[in-house]
Amino acid sequence: MDPNVARVLVESAVKIALFFFVVLTAVAYMTLVERRVSAWIQDRQGPNRVGPFGLLQPLADGIKFLFKEEITPPHVYRPVYLLAPLLIFVPALVTFSVIPIGPPVELFGRTVRPQIADVDNGVLIILALSAMGVYGVALAGWSSNSKYSLMGGLRSSAQLISYELAMGLSIVGVLMAAGSLRLNDIVERQAEHGWNILWQFPGFLIFLTAAFAETNRLPFDLPEAETELVAGYHTEYSGMRFSMFYMAEYVNMITASALAATLYCGGYHVPGLRLLGLPPLASALAQVLAFCLKVGFFLFVYVWVRWTLPRFRYDQLMNLGWKVLLPAALLHVVWVSFVVLMGWS
Amino acid sequence: MMRVEFFLFIAALLFAIGCVGVLIRRNAIVILMCIELMLNAVNLTFVAFAHENQSMTGQVFVFFVMTVAAAEAAVGLAIVIALFRRRLTTDVEDASLMRW
Amino acid sequence: MPVQLLLGLIVVLVVFAVVRAYAPERTLLAGVVLGLGALALLAVDSRALLSLEFWVGLIGFAAILSALLVVIHPNPMVSILFLIVNLFCIALFYLILQAQFLAALQIIIYAGAIMVLFLFVVMLLNLKTEVGLHVAGGPQRWGALLLGAAFTALLFHAIRGRLDQAYVESGMFDSSFGAARGVGGLLFSKYLFAFEAASLLLIAAMIGAVVMAKRKVR
Questions:
Q1: Interval A61-84: pLDDT, tens
Q2: In chain A, at which end, N or C, are there fewer CB atoms within 10 A of the end residue's CB?
Q3: Is-contact A135 A85, C-beta < 8 A?
Q4: Minimal CA–CA distance to A87: which of A219, A218, A248?
Q5: Quick count: other Cβ atoms within 10 Å of Cβ C170?
Q6: Which pLDDT tens digit goes with each residue over C2-44?
Q7: What residues of chain C, 159 to 218, have a C-beta less than 8 Å from chain B?
Q8: How far is residue C39's CA from residue A199's CA, in Å, rounded to a whole number?
Q9: Does an H or E element contain A112, and which?
Q10: Lowest mean pLDDT among A123-132, A283-292, C138-147
């Protein structure tokens, strides 16, 4: 095999394994973080018995899920029923492959980018994958062959496609400023001209609201609320398959937080790091750490909003998506194009 | 590099399969899906020729074909829904009031 | 050789499908044996995995197989799923043919929006597997198949007439061909009128679809 090809394959394999491991561990610990932070907001203690500060709780939860009985009801359409959790899980993970974690760094005599796929249309890949995520939800609802699941699947997928539009339009503002679809270019432009959140704040709010709706998190989690439609599209799933839906929700949260950090908050850029004059490896590590802190902050915002706001009713939700966010996003695009044309940014 | 004729063969086969599907199937929604198959085959032909002649016009045309396909799918499905409300079936053989 | 490897993998797939159709209890055994056979084929000729012809042949086979299943399968929901597979294969073809922007657009628009529309309609109308005659009966069926075969033969004959022309070499390509910038540049300059007309078309289609699908208020 050609040595160049072999080198690229090995590098990609190592990056993929590393990202996969880190994201899944983060998902496991998000469950704990959610429970502890919600407990802190509600003025009580969260799980703190299993291991120091409850740090082994996700391990215990994982073992519990493995031992749960997996019941496959006889009335489901089996091929699609088995495929649906994968269709939600895989696009969320693959979206992570285009997000840059840190700056390019010299390792083993070669420039390595902490990004699995540095494609020229990274933003389009993200939009494409979030469009594919709708299928998992709709097919889970349909294949379960029960009226609660069907209604929950329909409602949830209608919510997802409605908010996809607002999210896409808010991203258009970022794209116009950066002039490129490549995520590295977007981060570098924010490093030079200031973070996008500073002068595109309405777009940021629209993006954040749409991201909340896209990940089915409160205040938009009507399709999976326990008091509505039993449990929505994952009513008929149990055991390991249900935990796939649960994990997919957290992976979606992490991906949306990483996107918010990359598109609006400068990604891995740390303002003023160049003044410290650190050696390149240490500076790269500091920037990776900064990225992780930004993602962590957005995850905290996710949990915070969940335990603060009440849930929207379905018609309020659709109203907000079509009649409020979409016109606001269109106005935001007009505003950003005006600013870019005038050269004020 | 790949010969462009290979892509043309595949597109021709997909187009023929879509044609046969439109003529054979009785479910209106599957007929609309076979029309989408035909449109995709045509798109593949355009992109193959754009690649061969290194001209972006082929790709721009594909952009417009996708737009028209989206509009036509939306309107077609709305018609199917309206028909379904009346006849409770999507079978095209049942929409035969004005046939000879 | 890529063609042999591709044919070998197709034979493995066909044998597995036949076993599953006629002897379902041996599915696991057949799966294991054939899986090992496929791995042996790949190990013998792993160089072919790097050739473009193999991947184009594989994706082409997947596209044609999924298109056939769209037309044949009686359950409309499964037809939709196979059409999505077909759209993915065509997006991969676009990537090979240096149309990266179109590949992403294909997934976003076709697989991510139009097929979701089809999915919604099938779910709303609650269409199940069609029992009985799901294809047109009698003379229409054979006539359509004959027409399809004749049409395919005609198209193949037309394409074969081109085979004596030289094909392009890999050194001639501009690396920014197929990027969003190229399509956008043409759309907003040379084809601006068509672009605006397309946006009007979409508005008309949207209004038409909403009006047609609305419940009539009595």
A1: 888 888 888 888 888 888 888 888
A2: N
A3: no
A4: A248
A5: 8
A6: 777 888 888 888 888 888 777 777 777 888 888 888 888 877 7
A7: 159-160, 162-163, 167-170, 172-174, 177-178, 182-183, 185-187, 191, 194, 198, 201-202, 204-206, 208-213, 215
A8: 55
A9: strand A110-112
A10: C138-147
Residue-wise pLDDT tens digits, B38-89: 999 999 999 999 988 888 899 999 999 999 999 999 999 999 999 888 888 8
Output Rg (C-alpha) for chain C, integer angstroms: 22
- Measured CA to CA, the distance from residue C84 to residue B40 in angstroms comes to 12
Interface contact flag, C113 A161, Cβ < 8 Å = yes
Both tokens of A162, joined, read: 């409605």
Task: Tell whether C40 lies on the interface with B, counting CB pairs under 8 A.
Answer: no
Q: What value does the mean pLDDT of chain A take? A: 87
Whole-angstrom distance, CA of residue A342 vs CA of residue A282 = 39
Does A144 reside within a domain?
Answer: yes
Reported ipTM:
0.93
**Pair of tokens at residue B46:** 């355009």
Distance CA(A296)–CA(A111), nearest Å, equals 27
**Phi, psi at C74, each rounded to 5°:** -75, -20
- Tokens coding B11: 């597109």
Domain range enclosing A322: 71-342
Choose between A90 and A224: higher pLDDT: A90
**Chain C residues with CB-CB distance to A under 8 A?**
50, 77-78, 81, 84, 100-101, 104-105, 107-108, 111-113, 116, 119-120, 123-124, 126, 179-180
Q: Which chains touch A (3 or more CB pairs under 8 A)?
A: C
Chain B environment of C90 (Cβ under 8 Å): 40, 43-44
3-class DSSP state of C73: coil
Amino acid at C92: L
Q: Is residue A46 part of a domain?
A: no
Tell me the pLDDT tens digit for each residue of A189-209: 998 888 888 889 999 999 999
Determine contact, residues A130/A90, Cβ cutoff 8 Å.
no
Q: Taking Cα atoms as reference points, which of B75, B86, B73, B84 lies closest to residue B35?
A: B73
- Alpha-carbon distance A160 to A217, whole Å? 11
Partners of B27 in beta bridges? B91
Q: Give CA angle at C62 (A84, B43), nearest 5°.
A: 100
CB-closest option in B16, B27, B67 to C152: B16
Cα separation values, A37 from A43, A298, C206, Å: 10, 13, 44
Alpha-carbon span A17 to A209, nearest angstrom: 31
Which residue would you say has higher pLDDT here, C51 or A180? A180
**Record: contact B9-C202, CB cut-off 8 A:** no
pLDDT in the model for residue B97: 79
Residue (of A67, A62, A75, A74) closest to A27 by Cα position: A62
Interface test with A, best of C110, C119, C175 (most A CBs within 10 A): C119
Of A67 and C202, the structure prediction assigns the larger pLDDT to: C202
CA distance C99 to chain A (A): 11
Q: In chain A, positions 134-153, which contact chain C (CB-CB < 8 Å)?
A: 134-135, 138-139, 141-142, 150, 153
**B4-90 adopts what CATH topology?**
Helix Hairpins (1.10.287)
In chain B, what are the domain boundaries?
Answer: 4-90
> How large is the average pLDDT for residues A25-35?
90
Residue A156 backbone phi and psi in degrees, to 5? -65, -45
Mutate one of B32, B67, B86, B96 to test the C interface: name it (highest C CB count within 10 A): B67
Strands A105-107 and A110-112: what pairing?
antiparallel
Structure tokens at A188: 């570098």
The structural domain count of chain A equals 1
